[in-house]
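FORM 7B: Structural annotation worksheet

SECTION A. Query
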Amino acid sequence: MTTDVTIIGAGLGGLTLARVLHLHGIPAAVYEAESSPSERSQGGVLDIHDYNGQLALEAADLMDEFRGLVLEGRQAMRFLDPDGTVLFGKADDGTGGRPQVLRGELRQILLDSLPAGTVRWGREACGTRSLGDGRHEVTFADGSTVVTGLLADADGAWSRVRPLLSTAVPAYVGKSVVETYLFDADTRHPAVAKAVGGGSMIAVRPGREIFAHRERDGTLHAYVGLDEPQEWFAAVDFTDAAAATARIAREFDGWAPVLTALITDSDIPPILRPLHALPPGHQWDRVPGVTLLGDAAHLAAPNCEGANLAMLDGAELGKALAAHPGDVEAALTEYERAMFPRSEEAPAFEGLPARGAESEDTAPHDLVAAFTRHEQS
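SECTION B. Predicted structure
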């Protein structure tokens, strides 16, 4: 079986690529391991920036649909001291360049914009091999294969295509987050909802952070960050929700109850998310007929840029292919030449950034200063 363009991964980057190609009349097939769009939760709120993510949506001709998803007021930001004192607050005045949407809703507008059958669900890529002359074969977990003259991998951190281009593998960054949710918080947890405010809230001490944001319908979504080796987390039994919650909460003894409630009062069992990254400046030599985008190309610790860069990668690759009909290598060379520096230079602001703070007293103030510099950039 041969397709014009084979895309691995139906995340935001792969779908943006497929959409831009569709607008230019270039057929593509997207292969996705999940069995359907609703197989799992797609995560929480994303900032979609005017200097990258929104440019991708403009290229995909989906800005009107995007504006319909924006969660009004969610660009508000506040920083709290662990004792609950508000150190800094910025309201959403409607002029910011990072409107927020739910990842699952953004993915759905991309899916809805593609011809029926573009995404082949339940097709997990498990191996690839070069056939020469820029052609590659992808093997799927069900035993089926596809041969393609252009393989674009958007399958994330643990890409099965990356070994065709690079020996790099993601490494643990020394930090994990524990994910929690409080539902109907305005009614059931009003003090916590007030502390979080109308958008996002961050509280830090060196090696410990709580980041929370407001989603739809009073839902608070929190990420509890701890700088610890993987062995530390392996000693926590996350199959026992109560015991895991208590163990994580102990690391925040002395913090204000409105903050620790984001751990202890979670309406879901705590979910461990180890953080990994590819080497900074990850690049590869041009290999005919194959390229990477998004986390497959430049996985980094959470920095509010990953989804934006993945979509921009997809849009720019689609535009390059449309600009070089019949010359795949010219298109891939143009795309990679721009993508490599772009992924390094993004003006990232980590949502969970206490690493490197000098002391417990200065950590919250260091964070405020970092956010102010980011906003000014």
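SECTION C. Observations
The chain has 13 helices and 18 strands. The first helix runs from residue 12 to 23.

SECTION D. Sign-off
Analyst initials: ____
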